[in-house]
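Here comes a specimen:
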Amino acid sequence: MFVNRREVQIQWGDCDPANIVYYPRYFAMFDDSTSTLFEVAGFSKQDLVRKYGLVGIPMVDTRAKFYIPSTYGDWITIETKIESIKRSSFEVKHNVYKGEALAIEGFETRVLVGRDPVDPDKLKSAPFLPEMVAKFTGS
């Protein structure tokens, strides 16, 4: 499996009045981490649009399990990988570490989306390309 790790420092604006990260901020970090995963794998947003004719990779489901809070100034590591790929949908897992400890598990279901060839004003799921499957699964 192709995995990307990125270090993120918790900023003042990420925190609530109790000085812990306000949970929706993690979902924004997960979104950035998924985009970064594609970029590092060689599939930039520009490539998805121009080369592969996709519109994007919208999220259709998300959830998280929170174990350890983070506060302003903490450094966390977000480890992101695609856990499974179907025809056009895929499951993303984010493990967030605070030091060596697992702080959060984040989960996303996303879909590759392009323009409907019959009606370009509509969107339609698009199949994963073999080179993407190979890169993300290692097969």
